[in-house]
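Quick question, first post here. What does this chain look like in 3D?
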Amino acid sequence: MHLLIVVINNEDLINDLITGWLDIGVTGATVIESTDFLQLISTHIPIFAGFRSLTTKGMRHNRTVFSGIEDEEVLNQAVDFFKALCKGTGKPSQGVYFVVPLVQFGHMGGEWDDEDADDSGEESGKAD
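> Answer (accepted):
Ran it through. Tokens below.
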């Protein structure tokens, strides 16, 4: 299992990303609003205001998307879709992505607790 993390600098791409990922089998993700640290510092410390144009071309907010993906083929398709989506804008600095191994994953709360625990009561969501 892998954790795919995508940071989208162009907020206009988020709806297309989500619908595209759903079409290829990414069934769960978390989207949060985020800010590049150079954007943040350029807003709060005037001497660094010039950094804004160097990072995300003046865009103030990003969207960061996290998704745990078990199937490697779906993972590769999700990455390829993101790359194509960003490239399709014809603009630089549309976003970044990275993939990290996901060692453990589990649902907390409600009926999922019983499904994720093995006979010893330990979490069984360890990735292979």
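Strands lie at 2-8, 30-34, 62-69, 95-101.
The chain has one domain: 2-116.
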